[in-house]
Amino acid sequence: MTGQLFGFSANRRIIAGLLVNLFSSICVVFINKWIYVHYRFPNMTLTLVHFVVTWLGLYVFQKIDIFSPKSLQVRRIMWLALSFCGFVAFTNLSLQNNTIGTYQLAKAMTTPVIILIQTTYYKKTFSTKIKLTLVPITLGVILNSYYDVRFNLLGMVFATLGVLVTSLYQVWVGAKQHELQVNSMQLLYYQAPLSSAFLLGIIPCFEPLTGDGGIFGPWSLPALVTVLFSGVVAFLVNLSIYWIIGNTSAVTYNMFGHFKFCITLVGGYLLFNDPLSFNQALGILCTLAGILSYTHFKLAEQEEGKSRLAQRP
Predict the structure, then answer these.
(1) Torsion sign, CA atoms 45, 50, 51, 53
(2) Going residue by residue through the chain (313 aa), what tens digit of pLDDT does each one get?
(3) Cα–Cα distance for residue pair 289/297, rounded to 1 Å
(4) CA 147, 151, 157, 160: dihedral to nearest 10 degrees?
(5) How far apart (Å, rounded) are the C-alpha atoms in residues 302 and 34?
(6) CA-based max dimension of the chain
(7) Which of 22, 110, 163, 250 is deepest in the core (most CB within 10 A)?
(8) For residue 180, which of 74, 83, 76, 80 has the smallest C-alpha distance?
(9) What is the torsional sign of CA 209, 213, 219, 225?
(10) Is the dihedral of CA 297, 300, 304, 306 positive or negative?
(11) pTM reported for the whole predicted model
(12) CB count in 10 Å sphere of residue 76
C-alpha cells in the first residue's frame, strides 16, 4: 500500500513538472510576442529582465538548499556568458520580427548546425541515418520561409544569427559542464549575472534610455507587470527543463518537446492571426517529420550504446 501511494505521489509530481514546462515554454513565446506587438518594449532590456529574474530565482533556491553553488572563475565562463547574451537576444529579435511559425521552424535548424559544428571542430561522427534526417528538417524550414507572406529579410537575418549563436552556446554548455564538473543550475547561477553585466554595458548603445520606447520611458503599469511576468515564466522554463530531465528521461523530454512545438505553432496562428498557406503547412509537416526521425534514431543509438556497455565483462 505504501509503495502504491509513493508511486502515485511520484507520478503526480512528474505530471505537475511536465504541465509547468508545457505552460511556461508556450507562454513565454506568446507573452514575449505580445510585449513586442502591443507595448513595443525594447528587446535587449527584456532579455536583461529575464537574466536578472533567473539569477534572483536561483539565488533564492540556493538559499533554501535546492542546489549548492560551486565556485567558478569568471574568465573560464566569459565566452559562454557572451554567447548566452547573443542566444537569448537574437532569438527574441527573431520572434519580434517574424511570425511565430517562421520563428519556431527556424529554431529547428539548430540541430543541423550543431551537427556541423561538432563534425567540423570536435571531429565527432554521426551515422548516415542521423545525417539523412537533416534533409527534411532543412527542406521544411526553406519551404515555410519561401512561402511566408510576412517574410522580411531583417527577421531572417536575426533568425540565422539566433540559430548560429544558439548552436554554439549549446555545444559550449555541454563542454563547460564536463570541463568544470557542474550541473546546469550551478553553471547558470554564475552565467546569468555575468551576462546581465555584459548587457548593461551595451544596452545604452543600441536602445534609447528615455522617451517613447526607451528603457526609462513612460511605460504603463500593465506593460511593466507583463514584462516582469515574462521574466518569471522564463525562469520557470529553465527550471522545469532541468527538473524533467533529472526526474524522467531523455525520451520523455524529447517527445514532450514535439508536443510543445505543435501547440506553439497552432497558438501562433490562432492568437496572432499568422497566415498559413498549404506550402507552409507542408513545410511544417516536413520539418516535424525530420525532427521525429532524428529523435527516434538518436535515442535508438543511445540505447544501443548502453546495451553494449552492459554486455561488457
Answers:
(1) positive
(2) 444 434 445 567 767 777 887 888 888 888 998 998 888 888 888 989 999 999 999 999 888 887 888 888 888 888 888 988 888 889 888 888 888 878 887 887 888 888 888 888 878 888 888 888 888 888 888 887 777 767 778 888 999 999 899 888 878 887 887 888 887 788 888 888 999 999 888 888 888 878 777 778 788 899 999 999 999 998 888 777 766 655 655 445 555 666 677 777 777 777 777 777 788 788 888 888 888 888 778 778 777 776 766 665 5
(3) 12
(4) -40
(5) 39
(6) 71
(7) 163
(8) 76
(9) negative
(10) positive
(11) 0.75
(12) 12
In angstroms, rounded to a whole number, what is the distance separating the alpha carbons of residues 235 and 185? 11
Between CA 201 and CA 254, with CA 87 as vertex, the angle to 5 degrees is: 150
Side chain identity at residue 143, one-letter code: L
In order of 29, 102, 145, 216, 252, the CA distances from 152 in angstroms are 19, 11, 9, 29, 36
Helix ranges, 108-183 (H): 110-121, 128-146, 153-180
Separation CA 97–CA 154 (nearest Å): 7
Residue 285 makes CB contacts below 8 A (sequence gap 6+) with 140
DSSP state of 21: H
Angle at 247 between CA 246 and CA 251, to 5 degrees: 85
Q: Which amino acid is at 266?
A: V
Amino acid at 262: C
14 exposure class (CB count in 10 Å sphere: 0-12, 13-18, 19+): middle
Q: At what angle do helices 74-97 and 43-63 cross, to 10 degrees?
A: 130
Cell of 76: 573560464
Kindly state the cell numbers that stand for 100. 511565430
**How many angstroms separate the CA atoms of 65 and 70, rounded?**
13
State the Cα–Cα distance between residues 269 and 248, nearest whole angstrom. Answer: 31
All three cell numbers of 187, joined, read 553553471
Q: Which three cell numbers stand for residue 160?
A: 540565422
Report which DSSP code applies to 213: T
